[in-house]
Automatic annotation (TrEMBL):
Keyword field: Methyltransferase, Transferase
Pfam families xrefs: Methyltransf_11
Domain (Methyltransferase type) ranges: 67-170
Gene Ontology MF terms: S-adenosylmethionine-dependent methyltransferase activity
Keyword Transit peptide among UniProt keywords: no
InterPro entries listed in its UniProt record: Methyltransf_11 (IPR013216), Methyltransf_Superfamily (IPR050508), SAM-dependent_MTases_sf (IPR029063)
GO biological process: methylation
Organism (species): Streptomyces roseirectus
Stated name of the protein: Methyltransferase domain-containing protein
Amino acid sequence: MKSAAVALPATDFAAHPFFGPLDRRPSRYRGPHRLSHHGWLNFVERLERREEVSAVLAAVATSRRVLDVGGGTGELTRAVAARVERCVTVEPHARRVEVLQAPDGSAQAPDVPRTGGIEVLPGHAEALPFPDASFDAVLACWVLPYAEDPDRAVREMARVCDRSAPGGRVVLIGGAPDNELVSLLNEVCVPLAGEPHDHQGHLLADAVRTLSGLGFTDISLHRTEAALHFSEPDLEERITAAAALLTDFWYEGHPRAAEMREALRPALHRHFALRPYAIGDQGIVLVAV
Ligand SMILES: C[S@@+](CC[C@H](N)C(=O)[O-])C[C@H]1O[C@@H](n2cnc3c(N)ncnc32)[C@H](O)[C@@H]1O
């Protein structure tokens, strides 16, 4: 699948291959994943996502006031804040809020500029604490699968977006259909947890439907490559590290977590035979104007 940007009328989007796999699209939202803080920190430490950061910076190039919903530990938020007049993030997780508020920006990713210019508010996407049209660009990167009510979150994002501003837009990032991390979790951990299959494309397709109904009819999609890097020279050590990271990401403390780690080993053997030192975290960047 190529990393090309495409732009189509919103009505043509539901069946777009970037929102696949089409044969596994669920009829309703499976509910939020529980993102463990420890799992997230391990994830960010191994993540390289230059292409994704560049795509987000390009999307907000003409925006002055930016809201980054669910800023996490702020790696992406800081990159945006360095380039815009005002950058605000709303984040519900107390420990991530602490990291975001730390004066030295004590999150990982030392190559990201630290501006200290981020306004951090605890809160949820589903009830954004701002008047209508408060921001030019409103971003939510890898947030919808963690929200209780993704549709309400998207409606709130549209409400606080000033679509008459030159850089007025909603920007969402979710997993590409061939996202290697999500595929491994779906293959091994999700069934052991007895949960419904994770499908990132259906959340983006639903968001397009909602946004186009609200008047955001100019939609573009851009596929990005990103990856978690596992540089351990010994294959078994690498597999142990990857199995722990994948399990802890969504299932830290789950009663079947130990079983998940074991069950991931053969899948990771197969994965690393093809791609020895990385697991892809391919994304779709959706810009709605
Ligand atoms: C996978 S992380 C992504 C963080 C950041 N956007 C990034 O790309 O680095 C998802 C973030 O969304 C936050 N989140 C979960 N539910 C949310 C909600 N209802 N509203 C806003 N943020 C939420 C989580 O606490 C977490 O920090």
